[in-house]
Fold this sequence. Notes:
The protein is about 75% helix and about 0% strand. It has helices spanning about 1-15, 20-30, 35-60, 65-85, 95-105. Helix 1 (about 1-15) packs antiparallel against helix 2, helix 1 (about 1-15) runs parallel beside helix 3 (about 35-60) and helix 3 (about 35-60) packs antiparallel against helix 4. The relative contact order is 0.18.
Amino acid sequence: MKNTVEEGKNIAIVSHITIIGTIIAIIMNNDSKNAFASFHIRQTLGIFLLFFALGYPVGLFDSWMISSSLYIFIFILWAYSFISALQGQMNLIPFLGSFFQKFFKNLT
């Protein structure tokens, strides 16, 4: 398992660098199918898609408090996942992590 983590750590970190990084990580992981990298790709893809899905509707509210709350929530999820990748751990993000793992299981 430790070898799998070390091999997939760079791909997992790349997946956290914007949605473009996630797409690049998917392509990089396509050949090796590293379990650690796949886990973090699914987590970050879910975070970014959640942000895009909720960003526009929340932005329609004329309140900076509501939109700021969304941005802070997404950032906390992203930071938790990123720190987990840096430490070589496979921690599910709170609330939605298991859903993202199930929803994107066929992706990587």
